[in-house]
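Late entry, evening session. Most of the bench is empty. Finally got around to the prediction I had been postponing all week. Sequence below, unchanged from the version circulated by S.P.
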Amino acid sequence: MFDVPTSTPRARDVSVLAELKSGDAKAVLLSGGVVISMDPSIGDLARGDVLIVGDTIAAVGQDLAAQAATHGALVVDASEVILLPGFHDTHRHAWQGQLRRLLPDADLASYLTKVHASMAHHYRPIDMYVGNLISALGAIDSGVTTVLDFSHNSRSAAHTDAAIEAWHRSGIRAVHASSAPMDGDWDAQWPKDLARAKQELPATGLVTLRMALLGQAVDIIPDLVALNEGNIAYARELGLEISVDGAFGDKVGSDMERLGRAGVLGPDLTYIHCTDLPPGAWAAIADSGGHISLAPTSDAQVGILGGKPPVQKAMDLGLNPSIGVDIECSLASDFFSQMRALLTIQRQDVFTRRYAGDDEAPALLTDREVLGFATINGARANGLGDLTGSLTPGKKADVIGIRATDVNLFPLNNAIGTVVQGADPRNIEFVLVAGAPVKWGGQVLGVDLDRVRELATDSRDFLLSKAGTVLDVVS
């Protein structure tokens, strides 16, 4: 008979957490972890340390104990942990958080009808707050340290303020991309209210502002929020970067080509989806230094035109893409699902071409490449590439730790493969944003989750009632 040993699982030191949360620790040493830096100048370490001073990464290397001692650093044992930069979500409609998986089988048309042409009309500021807070906490739980909040339901200044307050309350880093509603009554405060919102952002610096525009790919999109010269000029006047959702299809593609020829586009724009764009639109993005945000599960499951995220097209043009969750009302919330979907789609396409005898089939997407999409590429697309996205000295300490000893991950044979192919949110031991713990010992911190559940349920029930929809959890 073979022996199966039993033991009590080790909980990460609660006294360390107490000191971290108190703010008394001016420096922290994450000691002895497997370091995946996503910085080519640093590389990866089978056993290494990350020294954090204040909110900033001070050093990454082997045996930094002496350097840490000069700062009086608190030492965190990371010997069973994979250390890497937090994930960057470059496209999430966070205001829909309380509608999670309400429409699991929706296509694009039914999503627009049931959400934007119905439930969205009834959102109060409290519903914006609750939706964003839920999305923020779910993001933290799954190792996302920055979210691009594509907020296209700002029906009043109070709605905008409530959304931003949720990000501030959660402790995550967020880029609030504000846009007008796509349908229904509103205060018509956008885009002029962007100037006020920028001035009143929380002093922590964790929440920044963007303009959110929409390619006019579907009839419901109003002219006001369209990708055009006037909106781009106004965003630049305010010093705001721009995210463009609905950047797909021939009509939007022709607009992008025209703006490219006019010299209006630039590296301050990120284009979302990019499915079935004509060659001229791709050239306009590449020539202007624009960024790409792919939505792998959204494209394939909700059906964004041809349904296949154009990862290969982007890579062929040297446009290393980023990744976004898109709509939690239909799709998975975590980045592990997104990475695997993107990897599977690209590799399936390559193998299909090889099987058909295509000698010019591209190289297979690697786990390291897709992890880059989720981290450093996402930071660049969110306008934060100089601030986060890699474990680089001088950047902000947005760090996640994944337990390599969990039952679904051990034994550790390949760290990047473990992160991309094996891990899920339950394996995330801790999440630091600007050096502050927002998840520790596998638990999201700083909120009363029972109260959040209550708020979420109340908000959902209100919205469904106003929309005349009956909840059926088994349908």
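Two things to note before I forget:
The chain is about 35% helix and 20% strand.
The radius of gyration is 22 Å.
Will write this up properly tomorrow.
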